[in-house]
Design goal:
alpha+beta, Rossmann fold, Immunoglobulin-like, 3 domains, 7 helices
Length: about 300
């Protein structure tokens, strides 16, 4: 065994006491994980929507000096990641009725030392706190659409008598619509309603603000949610009248003023007759009455 250990470049231990085996185990080789905290200069890439960044220019983000290496949680939205390894640095996800945002570096410390010269760093931290904190809504909104009329309902949440909602219409690209939006009417204390007339095929994109600040809540009224009257059937779901006329031996006429159809109908190729049964029904009722009368008056054999 000693020769084999020397030949392989290892070590040979002669154990005379069984209680000394534990010392050999400690001297065996073992693997060691790399430290989770990475140090260096790491280029970052922003991978979230403009709602988290606002007016912050993501191209001006300075390299990060240190972060903890982790993997993104399932369902999490990665706001900031390392460009080379795609390790998440800032991630957020929904939990219950709230939101969780995790940052894999120190907001103030060695890992963000280079961010001291980043002018938008304070704005970035402020937006993270505001987006993660529970949102206080000024109004609880609801949209109802029926017969081409969209009713926007705004129920005031805080007990502020002077707080009133404002309505703004938008196009699909989020640009303000040129049409003048209707104003809200207070139908009950703290309950406001506004009616909008639109085409049955038009989607409505609206923003509900207030007279205290510039914050808005976007709501959408889809044309597919409109409740139409019973006699207003969608042509896609309607009955194919041409096929029905063909199967029943009739003729489907699209233009009632067409000379060709008028001549065809006048020649009697397609004729409709209505037989009036009312005189015959009256005669049958009279005969039935007379028969009953005669039957009752007819002398019986004693």
């Amino acid at each position: 065994m000693a020769d084999i250990a020397n030949w392989g470049g290892g070590r040979f231990y002669a154990v005379g006491n069984q209680f000394q085996i534990i010392d050999l185990i400690f001297k065996q080789s073992s693997t060691k994980k790399s430290p989770m905290y990475k140090r260096g200069a790491f280029q970052l890439v922003a991978s979230a929507g403009t709602g988290w960044w606002g007016e912050i220019e993501t191209d001006t983000i300075r390299p990060l000096n240190g972060y903890v290496e982790v993997t993104a949680k399932d369902g999490a939205e990665v706001l900031l990641a390392v460009e080379d390894t795609e390790h998440p640095v800032v991630a957020t996800w929904l939990f219950g009725l709230g939101r969780v945002t995790a940052m894999m570096t120190e907001p103030v410390g060695e890992g963000t030392r280079s961010w001291n010269n980043w002018e938008d760093y304070s704005e970035f931290l402020g937006r993270i706190v505001r987006k993660t904190a529970p949102e206080v809504r000024m109004f609880e909104t609801d949209v109802r659409r029926q017969y081409g009329k969209t009713t926007v309902i705004a129920n005031r949440v805080p007990r502020v008598p002077n707080l009133q909602p404002k309505l703004q219409l938008y196009d699909l690209d989020s640009t303000p619509n040129s049409e003048s939006p209707p104003s809200f009417d207070e139908t009950a204390p703290g309950l406001f309603e506004a009616d909008i007339r639109s085409s049955a095929k038009a989607d409505l994109y609206m923003g509900i603000g207030n007279n205290f600040n510039n914050r808005q809540w976007r709501v959408v009224s889809l044309a597919s949610s409109d409740q139409v009257r019973e006699n207003q059937v969608d042509p896609l779901n309607g009955l194919d009248l041409e096929v029905l006329a063909e199967q029943t031996g009739g003729v489907s006429v699209s233009d009632i003023n067409s000379t060709e159809h008028i001549q065809t109908l006048s020649l009697g190729s397609v004729a409709y007759g209505i037989f009036d049964f009312r005189p015959w029904i009256f005669l049958l009722a009279l005969l039935t009455y007379l028969a009953d009368l005669i039957y009752r008056r007819w002398p019986r054999a004693s």
